[in-house]
Design a protein that fits this description.
alpha/beta, four-stranded parallel beta sheet, seven-stranded mixed beta sheet
Length: about 350
């Protein structure tokens, strides 16, 4: 069997390890053939692909980025997909001699995967995203690396904040999910963590910051990019939208810092961590998780278990139907936020 591998959406640490895992298991152990499309669906549409075998994936697991490239190019002419789109995809699959896909991506990619599967096109999915917002898997690869990067930033900002007696506000990614902020805030000992799922008032935030000052310390506030103050109807956004038509989030830290300073009379500085969270070498956890999901994806192909996502449940990799994943959102539960909120300030 010949299978096409492609990555879609934003890059995420561990994607190379996932490619290596699915190739080593699928080609070297199970005897299938695999090709990789460059820059996601762009490569599929334009015939830009490479052979994937042991030599192609040698030594790539520790590398950041993704060796195949990724993009937000869609295979469909409209968001809903048209009948002609599926015929075009089947025709190109026949040209390449492939019988199915391994799609590595996040929520948008798995939505496309389900659409293809519903039309009888064979797909297996591997869950990557630093946001950790994919339903069905405890963790997605890339998340642990992003948290580690954010935690290091907290450690560094704390030293300069303490030196100048300043309040430091660090903005992290995550879109509408607060998982990175929650975990990095706990790991770095932030005095305040603000996430999209649970708005807080400016008065409450100022109270926490002043409480820290009264103890002779300087506050470190971690805020997720999708956070909104009480009363804000929309998250802070940058100009423009992404390829999926979503607003580009970012800038809440630069809005929040002067408001905190005005309320508390404490000098406050904002840092937006940005894309550095998606770069660099993946952690050991992400390398192992990505490799295991790659193995499971190849095994699913060999067993004809199409329409499945290779997910982490506890310590086991299990196959979850796309129907249980797509259209759902894994938010931070109130109990997870409230268990740390009690210690703010």
């Amino acid at each position: 069997m010949r299978i096409g591998v492609l990555c879609s959406g934003g890059d995420s640490p561990g994607m190379n390890a996932a490619i290596r895992g699915v190739v080593l298991r699928g080609v070297e152990v199970l005897g299938h053939e695999m090709i990789g499309f460059m820059d996601g669906w762009r490569g599929f549409l334009e015939g830009d692909w490479i052979n994937l075998d042991r030599s192609a994936v040698r030594g790539i697991a520790p590398h950041g980025g993704v060796m195949l490239g990724t993009s937000r190019v869609s295979p469909f002419s409209s968001r809903a997909g048209e009948p002609g789109d599926y015929e075009m995809i089947r025709g190109r699959m026949a040209e390449y001699g492939i019988e199915g896909f391994v799609l590595i991506g996040g929520d948008g990619t798995h939505r496309v995967s389900k659409m293809l599967h519903d039309q009888g096109i064979h797909v297996v999915g591997l869950p990557k995203t630093i946001d950790n917002d994919i339903v069905g898997t405890d963790y997605s690869f890339g998340f642990d690396t992003a948290v580690s990067t954010a935690t290091e930033a907290i450690d560094r900002l704390r030293t300069t904040g303490e030196s100048h007696r300043r309040c430091m506000v660090l903005e992290v990614m995550g879109r509408n999910a607060g998982w990175i902020a929650l975990h990095a805030g706990m790991a770095g000992g932030a005095q305040v963590t603000l996430i999209p799922e649970h708005p807080e008032s400016l008065e409450q935030i100022a109270e926490w910051v002043l409480s820290v000052q009264e103890r002779g310390r300087s506050s470190l506030v971690v805020v997720a990019e999708g956070f909104r103050l009480d009363g804000m109807t929309e998250a802070v956004t940058s100009p423009g939208v992404d390829r999926f038509g979503r607003p580009r989030l970012g800038g809440i830290a630069e809005v929040l810092a002067p408001l905190i300073e005005e309320r508390t009379n404490i000098e406050t500085r904002a840092t937006v961590l940005g894309y550095v969270q998606r770069g660099g070498s993946p952690t050991a956890f992400d390398r192992v998780l990505a490799t295991r999901t790659g193995f499971a994806g190849a095994d699913a192909i060999d067993a004809g278990q199409w329409g499945m996502l290779a997910a982490l449940r506890g310590d086991e990799i299990v196959l979850v139907p796309f129907s249980e994943v797509v259209g759902h959102f894994k938010a931070v539960p109130a109990r997870r936020y409230l268990e740390v909120r009690k210690n703010f300030g």
